[in-house]
């Protein structure tokens, strides 16, 4: 069936200015569709769970605890990557009035990451992005920043807490990432899917990060197993600016006849007290902009890749190391 939508019509005898944002239209459409389902009895076919107007997503890399502002009580905790819906104000009778000049009543949380101070007055009612600073409990002179983003999904406000350093897999291959945790004297291994994001955990010493990579053959068309790559480092949130940097990595095949898997780890630099996005990229991409299928053959550094590439498709070639001369025959 065609998707349902809301038509908004304005009839005025005089000139008027109307400003509608995408979030306002989305909220109005969702509300009217929900009312329509209630009137037609569609929602009576199954028992509905209580609506929870808020949700918190933990993308900090460490355990997050949160509670209602002003109570001092911790309601729940979230492990890295977890998201939970809640309503800490369910006992209050605060029905919102549409088009109220005062707007919705303010809602704020207190949040804390394990090993860091509490961050008070994290608002839920303001859609947008802001940063907050937390202080290390072990070394009070050290601070870290959290990115707090409030978005609107249907009728629910979603608060996402993010680390200021994030690793993004922009290849089509699922990866395993080994992260060195110097303050714990151990390493942790994290899966990172294709086009996935891994928030780097907050460092209590504000130091740099050191990671190792390797592809996961079972989830791809790759054959055999791979060794861990050489280490790769990138800056943490140490309060200083850092220039852009690229590092070429290779994971050697463990079985005979399995060629090495290459990638490029790049970041565009880190501004002072800014966000650093680290991307994992294929070292070579071939894009077919022709109107027909392309038959190709690539050679370089002792590796060969050949096949057919349909019109509009992109080939990510991980057989070739960065800065390697590659010849192409089509």
Provide a descriptive summary of the structure in words.
The chain has 330 residues and is mainly β. It is 6% helix and 41% strand. The protein has one helix at residues 22-40, and strands spanning 54-59, 64-68, 76-78, 83-86, 108-113, 118-123, 128-135, 143-153, 156-163, 165-169, 175-181, 186-192, 197-199, 209-215, 232-234, 245-251, 261-267, 276-281, 284-287, 294-300, 303-309, 314-317, 327-329. Strand 7 and strand 8 form a beta hairpin.
What is the N-to-C succession of helices and strands?
HEEEEEEEEEEEEEEEEEEEEEEE
Please, what is the average pLDDT?
Answer: 82
Q: Main sheet, how many strands, which sense, barrel? A: 5 strands, mixed
Shape: globular
Count of discrete alpha- or pi-helical segments spanning 4 or more residues: 1
Number of strands: 23
Helix amount: under 10%
Which ranges are low-confidence, i.e. pLDDT below 50, for 5 or more consecutive residues? none
**Cα separation of the termini:** 44 Å
Strand order of the largest sheet: 4-1-9-8-7
Tell me the fraction of residues in β-strands, as a range.
35-45%
Radius of gyration: 25 Å
Alpha-beta classification: mainly beta
Supply database-style keywords.
mainly beta, 330 residues, 1 helix, 6% helix
TL;DR?
The chain has 330 residues and is mainly β. 6% of the residues lie in helices and 41% in strands.
Topology:
Layout lengths: L21 H19 L13 E6 L4 E5 L7 E3 L4 E4 L21 E6 L4 E6 L4 E8 L7 E11 L2 E8 L1 E5 L5 E7 L4 E7 L4 E3 L9 E7 L16 E3 L10 E7 L9 E7 L8 E6 L2 E4 L6 E7 L2 E7 L4 E4 L9 E3 L1
Parallel strand pairs: 1-9, 10-18
Antiparallel strand pairs: 1-4, 2-3, 2-5, 5-6, 7-8, 8-9, 10-13, 11-12, 11-14, 14-15, 16-17, 17-18, 19-22, 20-21, 20-23
């Amino acid at each position: 069936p065609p998707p349902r939508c809301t038509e908004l019509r304005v009839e005025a005898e005089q000139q008027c200015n109307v400003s509608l944002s995408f979030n306002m239209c989305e909220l109005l459409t969702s509300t009217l569709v929900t009312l329509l389902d209630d009137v037609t009895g569609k929602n009576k076919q199954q028992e509905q769970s209580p609506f929870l107007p808020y949700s918190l997503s933990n993308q900090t890399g460490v355990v997050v605890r949160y509670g209602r502002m002003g109570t001092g009580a911790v309601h729940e905790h979230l492990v890295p990557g977890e998201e939970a819906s809640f309503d800490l104000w369910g006992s209050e009778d605060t029905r919102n009035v549409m088009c109220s000049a005062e707007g919705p009543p303010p809602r704020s949380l207190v949040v804390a990451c394990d090993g860091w101070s509490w961050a008070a007055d994290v608002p839920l009612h303001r859609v947008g992005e802001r940063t907050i600073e937390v202080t290390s409990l072990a070394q009070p002179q050290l601070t870290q920043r959290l990115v707090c983003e409030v978005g609107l999904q249907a009728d629910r406000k979603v608060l996402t807490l993010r680390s200021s350093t994030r690793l993004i897999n922009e290849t089509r291959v699922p990866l395993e990432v080994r992260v060195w945790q110097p303050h714990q004297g151990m390493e942790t291994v994290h899966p990172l899917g294709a086009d996935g994001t891994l928030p780097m955990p907050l460092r209590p010493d504000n130091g740099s990060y050191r990671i190792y990579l390797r592809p996961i053959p079972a989830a791809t068309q790759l054959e055999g197993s791979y060794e861990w790559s050489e280490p790769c480092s990138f800056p943490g949130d140490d309060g200083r600016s850092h220039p852009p940097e690229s590092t070429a990595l290779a994971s050697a095949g463990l079985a005979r006849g399995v060629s090495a898997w290459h990638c490029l780890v790049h970041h565009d630099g880190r501004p002072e007290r800014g966000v650093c996005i680290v991307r994992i990229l294929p070292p070579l991409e071939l894009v077919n902009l022709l109107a027909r299928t392309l038959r190709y053959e690539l050679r370089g550094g002792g590796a060969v890749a050949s096949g057919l590439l349909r019109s509009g498709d992109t080939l990510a070639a991980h057989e070739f190391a960065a800065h390697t001369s590659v010849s192409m025959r089509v």
